[in-house]
Design goal:
Number of strands: 0
Helix content: over 70%
Mean pLDDT: 88
Oligomer: single chain
Shape: rod-shaped
Low-confidence stretches: none
Order of helices and strands: H
Structural class: mainly alpha
Length: about 35
């Protein structure tokens, strides 16, 4: 494995994972709320 400021890399990966997770939750929330109509 390549170690280049692994701390920064892990923080960036965690931030991206949280961001994607929130976007998926919002997407499914809108799908459910607008799909009931």
């Amino acid at each position: 494995m390549i170690d280049f400021a692994s701390e920064e890399a892990s923080i960036t990966i965690v931030n991206l994972t949280i961001f994607l997770y929130i976007m998926v939750i919002i997407y499914f929330f809108f799908r459910l709320s607008h799909g009931k109509h």
